[in-house]
Amino acid sequence: MSDITIYHNPACGTSRNVLAMIRNSGEEPVVIEYLKTPPDRATLTALVAAMGMPVRALLREKGTPYAELGLADPKWTDDQLIGFMLEHPILINRPIVATPLGTRLCRPSEIVLEILPQAQRGAFSKEDGEPVVGPEGRRL
User: 136 pLDDT band (50/70/90 cuts)?
Assistant: First the structure.
């Protein structure tokens, strides 16, 4: 089993680009489609801690019930925000990637290159054609 995990949304271009960069390094990650299989509270809390970011920074606003739920209000505790993410997994920003070198919210997608154990095997361009990695496997 791989020691790389991606919390993935196949409908998200950034998430697809990150998955492709992981595969371009020669790794086949554990892919968790978090909208179908959301993390439990302990896992989500551990991911936030491993990323070293505030819970609020993991909230996704666009295309979610963020505004409807009033999540911009500072009254919500971290525990309550995690509860909202568990109840509405679409609120979890993506993709989150965990490797032996760290755990990151990979927005922009190139952030994944900082935590991949293996170098890129060749050139890589994002779906929109933007080159990220040159033919020698180095980040541009």
Answer: confident
Cβ atoms 69, 87 nearer than 8 A:
no
Q: Which residues contact 85 (CB under 8 A, 6 or more apart)?
A: 44, 58, 59, 91, 92
Vertex 39: Cα angle to 68 and 36 (nearest 5): 75
Full residue range of the structural domain in which residue 140 is found: 1-34+94-140
Domain of 6: which CATH number?
A: 3.40.30.10
Phi, psi values for residue 30, rounded to 5°:
-75, 120
Q: What is the Cα–Cα distance from 112 to 84, expressed in whole angstroms?
A: 26
Is residue 68 located within the same domain as residue 112?
A: no
The pLDDT of residue 137 is above 90:
no
pTM of the model: 0.95
Q: Is beta strand 124-125 parallel, antiparallel or unpaired with respect to 96-99?
A: unpaired
Active-site residue list:
12
Taking only the tens place, the pLDDT of each residue in 48-84 is 999 999 999 999 999 999 999 999 999 999 999 999 9
Tokens in use for 90? Answer: 């679409």
